[in-house]
Specification:
Number of domains: 2
Number of helices: 1
Structural class: mainly beta
Helix content: under 10%
Radius of gyration: 23 Å
């Protein structure tokens, strides 16, 4: 059984001016393997400033094309296998699909025991596109076998896009247009012998063109035969891309004052190309900076909102021109 619910709460002007910045869409990923390093912490930062978050342990997340793994036939619709070190050993694998309409989860393989859990249908973890105010739910109930014992798994996700902002991580990493999503994921298994599961609650931070949340808080609650207890509360965040992936980090850009009448100060790295668009997406100005700070004559620009962007980066500034 699968259920979905989405709704949008937007004023017309807000939607029109910010849609390009506040919409989370299918990432543009390479077709080869890549790796990330994530830091794990026992604190839960709030908001978009994670610059002081401590890491008590670093964990490698390797992504390999699903069709290159030994389990390609079990997960034919998956694009990538996320591989992480398992406890007490082996490599755990989770199989993901990056469909134009959703980010999907197809199941996984436990590295220590070799147990395989293959979903008969994809769990649509996040929809594409997703905007602030959207609510997404999906669930899947299915049977599977482990070591000759039959189980019934009830897997459900409940997501709500809360806000968009600029996320600052330790070591100065900055991700603009990051969507903060309230996430609740429940996985419950039952058999003739027992029942239990894990409830994960927290906030996820999704940046454009990233295969996973670049940061997330989580509280894990274990439920066994009706009794529950919190087993871990903390967070994890991206530390670095170890191989095969260029992080879509924000480039520095400032533009002021706003409103501006005759002149506009533009601050960015010398040599950067800065492009200016109006609300209709038309190019008003395109200029390569010869210094880190320039004063532009904007007296000939039409009155209204304008968007400045460093080409090749995801940094955008909004300026109102009045005459």
């Amino acid at each position: 059984m699968k259920t979905k619910l989405r709704h949008v709460v937007f004023g017309a002007l807000f939607t029109f001016t910010l849609a390009a910045q506040a919409q989370f869409t299918q990432p543009n990923l390479p077709d080869h393997g890549f790796s990330f390093v994530y830091g794990v912490t026992n604190v839960q930062p709030e908001g978009f400033d994670w610059s002081a978050a401590p890491s008590i342990q670093n964990v490698n997340f390797d992504f390999v094309p699903a069709d290159s793994t030994a389990y390609a036939d079990l997960f034919p619709d998956a694009d990538f296998s996320q591989q992480t070190p398992g406890q007490p050993g082996g490599i755990n694998q989770a199989f993901y699909e990056y469909n134009p309409d959703y980010f999907g989860f197809w199941g996984g393989v436990d590295g220590a025991s070799g147990a395989q859990v293959v979903h008969p249908e994809v769990v649509e973890y996040l929809p594409y596109p997703m905007e602030v105010g959207d609510v997404h739910q999906d669930s899947l109930v299915f049977d599977f076998m482990v070591s000759g014992l039959a189980y019934v798994r009830d897997y459900s996700v409940d997501m709500e896009a809360v806000e968009v902002g600029t996320l600052t991580l330790p070591e100065g990493q900055v991700f603009e247009n990051t969507m903060r999503i309230q996430a609740n994921v429940a996985v419950f298994d039952s058999s003739v012998a027992s029942s239990g599961g894990i409830l994960t609650e927290g906030y996820q931070y999704w940046a454009p063109d990233m295969p996973l949340a670049v940061a997330q808080t989580h509280t894990y609650t274990q439920v066994i035969d009706g009794d529950s207890s919190v087993i871990f509360s903390g967070a994890e965040f991206l530390v670095d891309a170890a191989a095969g992936f260029d992080l879509p980090l924000a480039a520095s850009l400032e533009a002021y004052p706003s409103p501006a009448k005759h002149t506009l100060n533009v601050v960015a790295k010398a040599g950067s190309w800065v492009c200016v668009h109006n609300l209709q997406g038309q190019t008003v100005e395109r200029r390569q900076l010869t210094s880190d700070r320039e004063t532009w004559d904007v007296s000939t620009w039409p009155a209204g909102l304008h968007f400045l962007q460093v080409e090749g980066a995801r940094t955008t500034r909004r300026v109102l021109i009045t005459h």
